[in-house]
Amino acid sequence: MTATATTFPVPSPVVPPLRVRAKTVARATRALARDPGRLDQVLVLAQALNVGVVKERWGRFAGDAEGRRLLADRPILDRLHVDMNELARLPDGTLGREYARFMSDNAITSDPFHDPPSVGDDVAAYVMLRFRQTHDLWHVLTGYAPDVEGEVLLQAFSYAQTRAPSALFIAAFGSLRYMLRRPGHLRRLREAYRRGVATRFLGAFRWEDHWRTPVAELRAMLACPAPAT
User: Fold this and answer.
1) Which of 54, 72, 146, 211 has the greatest number of beta carbons closer than 10 A?
2) In the predicted model, what is the mean pLDDT of residues 40-47?
3) pTM
4) DSSP labels for 160-228?
């Protein structure tokens, strides 16, 4: 039987009271104002802001054939399931090679994304984990660097894709706090958002099937505009 949107239960994560989430966001924001590299606080902030809208965004997954396949198979992208040494031996320009290069060059590991968030619902937890584990692949596809501006631009791109509150918050906070006086930042921010609008929904994309595909081909396949030069 062909899978349909009703094949999978609608996620029902436990959503803390608004005042609790607001305090969590405030604490994480203060920590990030002191140190924008605090990935742990980014994850805390994202969970507090996004857990309440997982159910609303469910249709993007359940209404997509690839999304339903992801939910059925629940592939994992971490060091236990992805051989980075093998990816590093793939030809230059392929997704796998460029992903391995990106992680190595920037001293990034998938370890912080190993465990699903604790939200009281396994479907919601997997969806949130999937976005966490594919974040660096979005960097590779878009060409945005993992520095402060690159992260801000990727969040603008991500907001266009997902309407996740955390993406809007981080893009706005990062721009106001760090990037507003940087020449051309607002133009690049608008461009990042427009790239996200134009690109096919990446949340349901099966990256694991395309390690050997050149990134340039993936951009064409996913209708993702090439980064501005």
Assistant:
1) 54
2) 94
3) 0.91
4) HHH--HHHHHHHHHHIIIIITTSTTHHHHHHHHHHHHHHS--GGG--GGGGTTSBHHHHHHHTT-PPPP
